[in-house]
Structures are given as C-alpha cells and as structure tokens.
C-alpha cells in the first residue's frame, strides 16, 4: 500500500479549512440577524460585541438597546495610555493628599 501524496493531503486540508471559515462566517452572520430581530431595528447599528453583551444580559429592554445604540463602539484593546502603570511618586502624592 502506497503512502498518500503529502501535497494532495495538504491541499485537501486547506480546502476543508477554507470551507470551515466560510461556514463560521455564515453562522456568525445568521446569529447577528437573529439578534437584530430579537432586539429591534435600533440594534442594527450595534457592533457584534455589543449585541453579544446584550445577549448575555438578563431582561434587556428596548430602552437599553436604544441607549447602547447611542454609545460609541467598544474598542478592541485598551489604548497604551490606559494600560500604563503610574509611577511610584505619583501614587505617593495621591496617597498624601
């Protein structure tokens, strides 16, 4: 019995991976549409992350959806200044005040 061609195996796996990525994207789009139907037309302006957060909140009202739609999108990562740790002297000044 001959060993299968590694290039053919790699090509097959790449096709399967590409298909899986497409299926994931389709399911994510479907989930987004379901959430928009659930939370109303104002939720169309929300990011996927905002919709996900609403999904995890118990008993979300229409007013909460409208309020969330009026907010700016949530940044993916905090800015460098937000992650910066204050120096020890600044902490001492605050504690003495």
Question: Please, could you describe this protein's structure?
Answer:
The chain is mostly helical. The protein has helices at 6-39, 48-56, 62-70, 80-83, 88-96. The model has no long low-confidence stretch (mean pLDDT 79).
Task: Considering the chains and any ligands shown, give keywords for the structure.
0% strand; elongated; 97 residues; mainly alpha
Task: Offer a quick outline of the entry.
The protein is built from 5 helices and no strands. It has helices spanning 6-39, 48-56, 62-70, 80-83, 88-96. The radius of gyration is 24 Å and the shape is elongated.
Biggest sheet layout = none
Q: Which percent range describes the beta-strand content?
A: under 5%
Binned, the helix content reads 55-70%
Please write the string of helix (H) and strand (E) elements: HHHHH
Report low-confidence residues grouped into runs of 5 or more: none
Topology:
Blueprint: H1 6-39, H2 48-56, H3 62-70, H4 80-83, H5 88-96
């Amino acid at each position: 019995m001959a060993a299968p061609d590694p290039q053919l195996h790699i090509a097959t796996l790449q096709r399967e991976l590409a298909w899986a990525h497409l299926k994931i994207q389709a399911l994510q789009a479907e989930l987004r549409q379901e959430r928009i139907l659930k939370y109303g037309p104002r939720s169309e302006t929300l990011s996927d992350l905002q919709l996900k957060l609403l999904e995890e909140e118990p008993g979300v009202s229409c007013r909460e959806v409208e309020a969330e739609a009026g907010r700016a999108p949530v940044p993916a990562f905090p800015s460098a200044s937000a992650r910066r740790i204050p120096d020890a002297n600044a902490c001492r000044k605050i504690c003495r005040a």
